[in-house]
Design goal:
Strand content of chain A: 15-25%
Helix content of chain A: 25-40%
Helix content of chain B: 40-55%
Radius of gyration of chain B: 20 Å
Number of helices of chain A: 11
Structural class of chain A: alpha/beta
Radius of gyration of chain A: 21 Å
Structural class of chain B: alpha/beta
Strand content of chain B: 5-15%
Number of strands of chain B: 9
Order of helices and strands of chain B: HEHEHEHEHEHEEHEHHEHHH
Distance between the termini of chain B: 29 Å
Number of helices of chain B: 12
Order of helices and strands of chain A: EEEEEEHEHEHEHEEHEHEHEHHEHHEEEE
Distance between the termini of chain A: 24 Å
Shape of chain B: globular
Largest sheet of chain A: 9 strands, mixed
Number of strands of chain A: 19
Oligomer: heterodimer
């Protein structure tokens, strides 16, 4: 059936040599030069790069509970446009994703939308309250097959609880994704603590509040022989600690957001809450260390921490504003700008940090696969020569809180194939993937 | 100058213009009829999200002496306490035709938000925002210092700066908008500033400020100072372990009777003692110091009205390089 058959003509595979990819029925059926059209819909990919669909380990889809900020439908449309074929939906919804029921609901909403794989993240503790473990096993065994657990936004700061969580998830090959923030050192914190906060009179969020938790957690992970993922690393010191932990053989992975790769706390001088985020924007030294860490593999993956907010939560005083930035539709461009245009990484490295490794961390079997024959056809086509100016009002996400507003960025997603179906074509949303009806036979 | 948001970006030219204009305004305050028609028909809103009777009545007196219509909008007991946003409040004031908004807010940067957004087009004067800045306080402090420093040096205060004046500012610098505004402005005017505080009450990054930092008040006094400014310290800070007790704070960083005597013993006869008020007598300043002839506490209050008149006048009557002479003319008209 030609309907399910696409021939991508002449795309540079992972930025390498130009080849054709034949996609049929959700699978890469052939790869090579001058493949026969064979009734397929031909997509001219001259000048474009073919990459595996991006996998976000850190997305806030807000549903259930804050459908005024984002829904699974709008958030996954944004994801598809941004070049993602899978997202991990963070647990801080309302109700919190701390039961099998809630994670299955989010999982089902994702399947109904059909733009990307939606992999719910389960809460570590009941209600994110940091007191009692949520039913991690039930969430792991549910239809959502949760493997990543996080109280993101809130740190699992109790060392005993963190130890138990790390140990417990070993039973089902889970990982605890920690939002590293020592709560007592960050009471009322508004921005990075340093020279800028001193002048602005905003309560500081010191680097040590992140680094001390990471240091503790890698030692805990070593002690109990478990797997730890560190969310949105933001400081040079954190990079050093993760580098040290990896050298000791500790099973830790780390993530960095696109905004921490590009923006600094100097932007806070405007008091514009679009720059308010947790962890906060840091200094230029931190930005450089994060880039180096991502390039040398100390930091494993890019995670967007896409955090849409209704405009009234940003159109206010800095201290009143919500923390968070949108990121799904700008991630690729920001990583290209900060890592590829700077010569720190290749497109093959890009595939590693945005697709291959994130899928391994999240234990997603059919995501983050190489673009080889027989592999699932989660593929994106990127125009690296494109330049565009960020306009939050033109985005698919409901959030207008992009810190890149008005900025010109390189690179655009031309097409996204999810399970062999083009969810995005010519840079615009096409149609969602429709799961086959379950046969009653 | 469209707004007065901070002293950090205030040029020496603009700062001296405000101070010189304030000198003219001060003359008005000494007359029997303390009023100028300069801002007749203009509306000034005092928008206070934080209680501060002293600052509010100072601005109110300033605006009224310039014949402006004054609206006091206190957040408590208004729609603001019912959850109305800053944006809606600002748009409401804009719809009512406010020409200037004097804003006091507990959140650092709130005046910047008003000035940077399209919520309201009025001139914005920062009357103290969180722990950020309090520019009119710094200007009235500088005005008070300049009068004193000019007298000591036997020169006219109008047109003068603070070159060579040694100013120590002691207290809770970390949480003080007064300290921040003073550091930037005094530096701009050529004074030499030393901040004196326990290390816990100094911000991380203070080493990049254009001033000296000391943990030892006695040593700072011994080195010689021309003005000693004490900052208000909240006793509750000891509950967050910023210092062990109010008594220990007083002994080490308070301006007590012994330190008052030290000024005499070291022959610093012209050194003034300043405090932005309200004072905690017995904590950061002793009664003897506050009430001594060196104290400029009441002069600061008096000068506050003149400085705020100058700020309102300069912001609302457009860019007038001959501000001072205009005032002189309008004073003649009033007479």
């Amino acid at each position: 059936m030609a309907e399910n058959t696409y021939l991508i003509r002449g795309a540079a595979i992972l930025g390498g040599e130009a080849e054709d990819l034949l996609i049929r029925d959700g699978v890469i059926e052939a790869r090579g030069k001058d493949l026969s059209t064979d009734g397929a819909t031909v997509i001219d990919a001259k000048g474009l790069i073919a990459l595996p669909g991006m996998v976000d380990v850190h997305t806030h889809l807000r549903e259930p509970g804050r459908e005024d900020a984002e829904t699974v439908e709008t958030g996954t449309r944004a994801a598809a446009l941004g070049g993602f074929t899978a997202v991990h939906a963070m647990a801080n919804s309302n109700p919190v994703a701390d039961t099998a029921g809630v994670v299955e609901q989010v999982h089902s909403l994702g399947r109904a939308s059909g733009w990307v794989d939606v992999r719910p993240v389960g809460a570590v503790t009941v209600g994110l309250a940091g007191e009692q473990l949520a039913e991690l096993g039930a969430m792991a065994d549910s239809r959502a097959q949760v493997r990543m657990f996080s109280d993101d936004g809130i740190c699992v700061h109790d060392p005993v609880l963190m130890r138990r969580a790390l140990e417990y998830v070993k039973a089902f090959d889970g990982v605890v994704a920690q939002h590293a923030q020592e709560p007592r050192l960050t009471a009322g914190a508004q921005m990075n603590e340093g020279t800028v906060s001193a002048v602005l009179g905003l309560t500081g969020w010191p680097a040590v509040a992140e680094e001390s938790i990471i240091a503790r957690d890698v030692l805990l992970a070593q002690h109990v022989g478990s797997r730890l993922h560190v969310c949105h690393v933001s400081t040079a010191g954190s990079v050093e600690i993760v580098r040290w932990a990896k050298a000791r053989g500790i099973n830790v992975t780390a993530e960095v957001t696109p905004h921490h790769l590009l923006l600094t706390d100097e932007l806070v001088r405007s008091y514009d809450p679009v720059y308010k985020v947790n962890p906060p924007l840091r200094t230029d030294d931190d930005v450089q260390a994060l880039r180096e860490g991502l390039a040398d593999g100390t930091i494993d993956v890019v995670g967007t921490d896409h955090a849409p907010h209704p405009s009234e939560h940003k159109e206010c005083e800095w201290a009143q504003a919500a923390m968070g930035m949108t990121g799904l539709e700008t991630a690729l461009s920001v990583v290209q700008e900060t890592m590829i245009e700077t010569g720190l990484m290749t497109w093959a490295d890009f595939a590693r940090v945005t697709s291959f490794t994130p899928a391994v961390i999240g234990r997603l079997a059919d995501q983050g696969r190489p673009l080889e024959v027989g592999e699932p056809a989660n593929v994106i086509l990127v125009d690296p020569a494109a330049r565009w100016t960020v306009d939050p009002h033109k985005m698919a996400t409901m959030g207008r809180n992009s810190p890149f507003k008005g900025k010109e960025l390189p690179g655009s997603v031309v097409a996204t194939f999810f399970k062999g179906h083009p969810t995005v074509l010519d840079g615009r949303l096409n149609t969602p993937y429709r799961y086959p009806a379950v046969s009653s036979n | 100058m469209k707004h007065l948001l901070s002293t950090e970006n205030l040029s020496a030219f603009d700062a001296i213009r405000v101070l010189d204009t304030a000198e003219e305004m001060s003359a008005v305050g000494e007359r029997e009829v303390k009023k100028l028609p300069a801002l007749r028909g203009r509306t000034v809103v005092n928008l206070f999200f934080e209680d501060s009777t002293r600052t509010r009545i100072s601005f109110e007196a300033a605006a009224k002496r310039l014949s402006a219509d004054v609206i006091n909008f206190a957040a408590k007991g208004s729609s603001v306490s019912k959850g109305e946003s800053l944006k809606d409040t600002a748009q409401t004031l804009a719809a009512m035709g406010a020409d200037a908004v004097v804003i006091r807010h507990w959140a650092s940067g709130a005046p910047h938000r008003l000035a940077a957004t399209d919520w309201i087009d009025a001139a914005v004067i920062n009357a103290g925002d969180g722990t950020h800045e309090h520019p009119t306080q710094a200007l009235l402090d500088a005005f008070t210092m300049r009068r004193h420093w000019s007298k000591v040096n036997g020169i006219e205060s109008t047109g003068a700066d603070l070159k060579g004046m040694r100013v120590a500012i002691a207290g809770d610098v970390l949480h003080s908008r007064v300290a921040r505004s003073n550091v930037w402005l005094l530096k701009t005017l050529g004074a030499e500033v030393t901040l004196v505080a326990p290390p816990t009450l100094l911000p991380i990054g203070v080493e990049h400020w254009p001033c000296e930092v000391s943990y030892d008040l006695d040593r700072t006094l011994e080195a010689g100072i021309d003005a000693m400014m004490m900052l208000r310290v909240q006793g509750e800070r000891m509950n967050a372990s910023f210092f062990p007790s109010t008594r220990e704070y007083s002994r080490r960083w308070g301006f007590d009777d012994a330190r008052l005597r030290t000024l005499d013993e070291l022959g610093m006869k012209d050194t003034i003692i300043m405090h932005p008020g309200p004072m905690n007598r017995g904590l950061e300043i002793s009664s003897a110091a506050a009430d001594s002839p060196r104290s400029t506490v009441l002069a600061q209050v008096r000068n506050g009205v003149s400085v705020r008149m100058a700020a309102l006048y300069l912001l609302l009557s457009g860019d007038s390089r001959e501000a001072a002479s205009n005032i002189s003319q309008s004073s003649k008209e009033t007479n």
